[in-house]
Specification:
The structure is a homodimer. By secondary structure, the first copy, chain A, is α+β, with helices and mostly antiparallel strands. Chain A folds into two domains: 77 residues, Transcriptional regulator CtsR, winged HTH domain (Phenylalanyl-tRNA Synthetase, Chain B, domain 1, 2-Layer Sandwich), CATH 3.30.56; 83 residues, no CATH class. In chain A, 53% of the residues lie in helices and 12% in strands. The first copy, chain A, is built from seven helices and five strands, in the order ββαβααββαααα. In chain A, the strands form two sheets. A three-stranded antiparallel β-sheet of chain A has the order 3-5-4. A two-stranded antiparallel sheet of chain A has the order 1-2. In chain A, a hairpin with a 5-residue loop joins strand 4 and strand 5. Chain A starts with a strand and ends in a 6-residue tail after the last helix. Chain A binds a DNA duplex through helix 3.
DNA sequence: TCTCCTGACCTTCTTTGACTATCAAGAGTA
DNA sequence: TACTCTTGATAGTCAAAGAAGGTCAGGAGA
């Protein structure tokens, strides 16, 4: 059953493959229920979180969101392939966990110049992470960390868009 | 996460949708009886209150009034404000110097729903001010203040960009 | 060692029911 | 007639239970 190239796959790999198959048929995103999936594979619900956090991160080209409470669910979105490598480089190398105002502004401009994102989107990012926005008394270390998070998540949000809706 | 009709909605979402459909047919306001609605959906009457208080607040673009006693009823009114008016209200009053994550997210969605800004722009704002972005150890007071600054500046940036309804 | 997997405990959102507050209309009374 | 009083029909509030998903430490394997 769970075989690949003659080797037994791990449960996590089986679940990951299952999810990827659901996402592979033209679907950009799917919604599923953690408990259902866990029941289907007869594993602990937290195993699903493990799979998601190790195999469906932005670095892998996916973004996940979720809702708790009755009727809650998990949504997994596949990022557009276009610029996938570059996006990964940006997130991991350029932005990382912390970036100062100057560097961030330069990167945002470059993104627009290279037409990776639109000028409007770049300007929105620049606004969100601008010195003016951060003109509030908190340690600059925290500012840089927060700036990186904002930048990172906004880029992911853009990458997540359905190309048809551009 | 965005609601998505289709899959499987919670009772509260179904009721909310039902009410919105009643309001969408040119009606600016409707009057209904709590018990009737509860009976129609076979739920506890207080569920109606839950729906109203979580999905029909002024931030959501609605105002509700009610009368108790025999022949009592609940009146739900859809707010009407032009884009410019609404923007001014948001910048000067609603967002102000501080706004929490939940309210900010609702307001950002509302902006798109009223077509004051595009869905993409709304999503970028929502991302920038999301709980995920702010998942960093700083006092929530500071988070709310920073969130307000980001929200305000992004809105201004968008408004400056396309002066469509001024 | 590193990855996988689980279970105990936590947070968030929904649903329900018991109890409370209010109103309108009819009954009773001066 | 005018003024209570009573009663039934509504709606509101709140706390607890229910229904998801999240986190984390630690054991189990490879």
């Amino acid at each position: 059953m769970d075989e690949k190239a003659g080797v037994w796959m791990r449960l996590s790999d089986t679940i990951a493959q299952f999810i990827k198959e659901m996402l592979s048929q033209d679907e950009l995103e799917i919604e599923l229920q953690r408990n259902d999936l866990a029941a289907y594979f007869q594993c602990a619900p937290s195993q699903i979180n493990y799979v998601l956090s190790t195999r469906f991160t932005p670095d892998h080209g996916y973004v996940t969101e979720s809702r708790r409470g009755g009727g809650g669910c998990i949504r997994i979105t596949r990022l557009r392939k276009t610029g996938g490598e570059y996006l990964r480089y940006l997130l991991e190398e350029r932005i990382g966990e912390s970036i100062d105002e100057n560097a961030a502004d330069i990167v945002a401009r470059q993104l627009a110049e290279r037409q990776v994102i639109s000028v409007n989107d770049a300007n929105l990012i620049r606004t969100a992470i601008s010195a003016q926005t951060f003109a509030i008394p908190i340690p600059s270390q925290l500012k840089d960390a927060l700036r990186a998070r904002i930048f990172r998540n906004m880029l992911l949000s853009i990458a997540k868009r359905d190309p048809q809706e551009d």
